[in-house]
Amino acid sequence: MPLSNPPEYGQSMLPAGTYAGQVVLITGGGTGLGKAMALEFARLGAAIAIISRKPEHLESGMAAIRELGGEVAAVPCDIRDPDQIARAFDQIEEAIGPVTVLVNNAAANFPVAAETMSANAWRTVTQIVLDGTFFCATEFTRRRLVAGEGGAILNIGATYSWTGGPGTAHSAAAKAGVTNLTQSLAVEWAPDDIRVNCLAPGLFLNEDHPDNLVKGVKGGAGRESSRPASRVPAGRTGAMHELGWAATYLCSPFAGYITGHTLVVDGANWLRRSLVMPEFETVRDTIAPRL
Fold first, then answer.
1. What is the pLDDT of residues 261-285, one digit of tens each?
2. What would the pLDDT profile of 29-38 be if each residue is shown by its tens digit?
3. How many separate domains does the chain show?
4. What distance in Å separates the CA atoms of residue 31 and residue 61, rounded to the nearest whole number?
5. What's the confidence (pLDDT) of residue 288?
6. DSSP 8-state secondary structure symbol assigned to residue 128
7. Structural domain contains residue 72
C-alpha cells in the first residue's frame, strides 16, 4: 500500500491571503516544478514574477497564473548574467512592485558519463544552477537591504548533493554548492531578517518536463523500468501541488524561525540503503547511448 495521497489540488495549506501584497519571483517559473510553486503562491495572494530565457515558457507561466485570476509579470532573462538579472528586477519592480520572496528554481541537467562530458556541458549546468542561484540571491538581498526590509529566499537543491550523482556529476556538484550556499547565506543574512532555505524534491512527474533522467536508464540487471512509482518507497510519485505547499510554507511567516534548512520532499527515496544492495552497474552501462 503506498503512502496516502495528498489533499486534492486547489486546496491551500496556509490561510487565505498569506502572501497578499507580496511579490514572489520564481526563476524558471513558467514550466514544471517552478510553475507548480508559482500557482500555490498565487493562490495565497502573491503577485508572481517569472524570469526565463524562453518566451514560450514565459507565456505558459503567465497563462497559468492569469487563469487563477492572479497578477503576473514575465521578463526574459539569462540568470548566468548578473546585468540581465539586475535589469529584470528593475522591470519587475516597475510592473508589479519590489520582489519580497525569491525562489531560485531554474536548473539544467542531463545524464552523461563524466569522461565524455565537454567543458561546455559542465559550464551550462553549473553556471545556471550555482552561479545563477548566487547572482539572483545577492541581487535580491542588496535591494532588500536598501529598502530596510526583510524577505525570504528558497533555493531548489537535490538529495544527491549529499551522496554524489554518478552520471550527473555537473548537476550534483552544482547542487552541493547550492546546499552549502543556503547554509552560508542563512547565517550572513539572518540579522537582516532575510531567511534562506532549500527544497530537495524527489520524483515529480509532469507534462512540462517528463522524467527524462530515468528514461533510457536501465533498472536492475539491465531491465527498463516502466513504472516510476516503483522506484520510490512511498509507492507513488509526488503530486506537484505538494511541492508548492512545501515552498509556500518555508517562505511564509509561519516558518519565521526556520533558516538554513534543506527540506527533502521525496517519499523517503534518497534514504534507500540496504545491507544487500542491487548488483553494481557502471554509469556507462546504465546510461543509454545518446543519439
1. 999 999 999 998 777 777 888 888 8
2. 999 999 999 9
3. 1
4. 6
5. 61
6. I
7. yes
